[in-house]
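Obj.: predict assembly geometry.
Materials: sequence records (below).
Method: joint structure prediction, all chains together.
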Amino acid sequence: MASEGEAMPAGGARGGLRTGARGGAARGRGIAYQIPRNTLALLMIAQVAVVLPYLLHLSPWLIAVGLFCGYWRSGVYQGRWDYPRRWVKAVLVAASIGGVALTGVSAFSLEAAASLLILAFALKLIEMKSRRDAYLVIFLGYFAIATLFLFDQSIAVAVYQIGALMLVTAALVGLNQLVTRVRPLESLRVSALLVLQALPLTVVLFLFFPRVAPLWSVPLPSSSVTGLSDRMKPGDVAELTRSDELAFRAVFAGEVPPKRALYWRGLTYSRFVEGTWSAAGLLPEWGTAERPAPAAGASGIDYEVLLEPTSSDWLFGLDLALPATPGVTLERDFRLTAPDPVLSVFRYRVTSYPDLGMDQAPRLPDRLRIRETWLPDDGDNPRVRAYARSLMSAAGGDAEALVAAVVAQIRSEPYFYTLSPPPLQDRNSIDEFWFQTRRGFCTHYAGALVFMLRAAGVPARMVGGYQGGEINPVTGHVMVRQYDAHAWVEYWLAGEGWRRVDPTAAVAPARIEEGLNAALSPEDRESLSALTAARFDGVGVFRDLLYWADSLEHRWNLWVIGYDTHLQADVLQDLLGEITPARVGLALLLAGGASLGAVALVLFWRRRSAPRHPVEGAFQDFCRRLAGAGWPRRPDEAPASYLRRLESGGVIGADQAGALVAEVDRLLYNPGAGWGRQDLRRLRSQLRRVRLRAALGARR
Amino acid sequence: MKEQIEAVIAALNDVLLGKENQIKLAFACLLARGHLLIEDLPGMGKTLLSHALARTLGLSYNRIQFTSDVLPSDIIGTSVFERDSGTFRFIEGPLFAQLVLADEINRATPKSQSALLEAMEEHQVTADGETRPLPDPFFVIATQNPVTQGGTFPLPESQLDRFLMRIELGYPDPDAERALLRGGDKRRGLAAIEPVLDVDALKVLQQAVDDVKASDPLIDYVQRLVAHSRRGQEFAYGLSPRGALALLHAARAWALIHDRRHVVPEDVQAVLPGVVEHRLREAADYAGHGGAALAQKLLAGVDVVG
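Observations (raw structure tokens):
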């Protein structure tokens, strides 16, 4: 890189003198310390590759800063501009920090830290002069590659980052080439080779290296994720259905239950204020004998759920799910919760007992009863209240009969299931829906039913979760996507406990039996995103491709992301028996040595010389052994001369020596006389005899 | 064939006492169609050996005594105007013989030395714009005084490379010297040497050299030797491909002299000093000596068996 030329104004001698006078440290460095021009290009490409995926997670103006720096640097590269002066750099740094502060991320969040890292990475471009600076940029690049995994751990990102790793390494290789012989393609080849050679060791370290709990906690990204919220307005779920993002995958140990039985229970919504259902706060603790336990010998449905990040702590399971993973708890309203908000793929194991009742005691605890029959002031939705009470009295106070009447009403009257219902007022929304619009999504029907049950004095609540799912034929797991989001109703019967009722099944039975796709009207279908539509209508190859990609991602989650301390302990237990630090250390050492040895072997194999002539091999072997018996052969001693010397030393008899000399001469040096396996074997046995005799002689 | 070879060697042994190895090398060199350079002090029998070779093999023989004022035309020949016919006639120089002894070649100027070059390589000479073939077979045996002696123009590497072998005769051992002193000067008996071979028989022998086989392990050995000379720290430069070919071909001739139809490592080792000494130079030595020690280092540094 012609930094001297770039840096010096065209003015010539005076400028030169000035630079010289300003002193040696920076300018006086020899060409060996400068960054080779071609390598600079490679370095910049690597930087772009490293920064690019951050676009998805950080604010886009960072990229603009990066582009600006790249433009400036290319000007310097072409000799048009000078490096920025000190105060310009100071202003740039201050402006960048200010920019990050203004972006609205909190000061100690991951986003803020990552933004500053990327900014430093970009700004270093216009400051980098010597090799030392370039090394700094390269190590920053490695760091940025690792940092991205805090945001996203999917397989696609991992593959991309390996590519970025190769590019950064190629820049590092390029920096160490001769200035006169910089070959970017060769650098790339070398770095790809280096990364590939490192892969076995990576696998070993991944498997064996102890997962140490971090000394300080890294703040995790707080980005918004699509998914169920703890506040639900009728119509919210309809928005969710437009997303085909994955909610979770479930792996069943046995057969997958039928689709209509797959009610993935999530949250319960007990408060209804101003047309919005929300999950209530703290729940009473489990009383004694209330905690459900399976009957002895009852067999449940075993499955494991791999939940995608939700940023909240509730989990999903089929009724009634008893957690088998430590840390996962069953709450008083029978929802499952994780110990912490789920920010990366969370694995938990569950056993469901569909026949196990919930709150089967003859009386609900008072707090619970109050909470699950609570309604806002009488002014809200008066018509539905009156309607519910009249139905209830007609039913003779029987909650089951009331539900049956409401469901019959939905079936017989013109109620419609649609993704785009007309908007409702916050107040009296249920009146409006039930008596006027009559068009709604699952939350509308569930909300109306809960309201009516509560108005009639029956404890009831809305349950949010997912319904259904799609079986991936490749791996056999169930994929549940956001468009499977659903809401249904639970009401309490004395003695029986909570009973599930799904009013959506009355208005759109196909939604429950076959999934959302079957229940959609043509207008609804048009409002779907392209990918969702493709998933629904996909044919043949494309659908298979989606399945295949999903199963790949699933395995990645199972074996790479899900390889946590517990799984590692299991694997190590299988491999090593008892887990002691010494054993783990030894295994790490052995496996690491083996992986490095394998690489060394490949290198050695590729550098090996042409295969040795078998007769030469046999003869060399013979010489080595005789050397042990005190008769070493000088390297320049030809076989015949050596054998003659052995003869004169009394190691071989005269006639035997003659035969051997003739034999070796024939096999080694007479191309006219062909030879086969027998000849070789005979020679070997002859040589062996000589050897034994020599060994005996040496002992005497 | 075996008898012929033995007869030649016996005849030469009668003339030059106690130098059987050098005689065999010189003979092998001619059988391999190569030119020979004999380097030694004056009076060691260089001329005697070359003259005896010519007689024994039944070749026509010329001797050129090189001095610092010998001109190329003195070697190649010159055109003379003939008054009778009114034309120029080319008078062939001493080069036109089947065996030419170029005596004390390093006393001549480079210009005259290089006149030999085309002749040795192409077996033809160009004079007055006309190319004339030389007799077949055509051998040059050159002698030179050690380069350390005064009044010498050392042969450049390019020219040294054209000699298949360079040998030294050395002092005779006491027994041979005693026989020499007692038997009188054998030089007088030179005229009495009867030709053992004729040109046709020589050509048959040369053909037989070509037919001597070399196995893969042997060629591997030759390659290892060459590679070692190119890699080793002590060598200023390695053996050229021509050097490698020369080594193998000389070893073939050596094998034939010892009545073998295939080459063994001993053959290579026997001819190696003669073939490579003048083609190597020690890295540490800018004056250009030390080839003999180098050849020994080369031999000792390479395993015969791969």
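Conclusions so far: Chain A touches chain B through 21 residues (CB under 8 Å).
To do: check interface contacts against the pulldown list.
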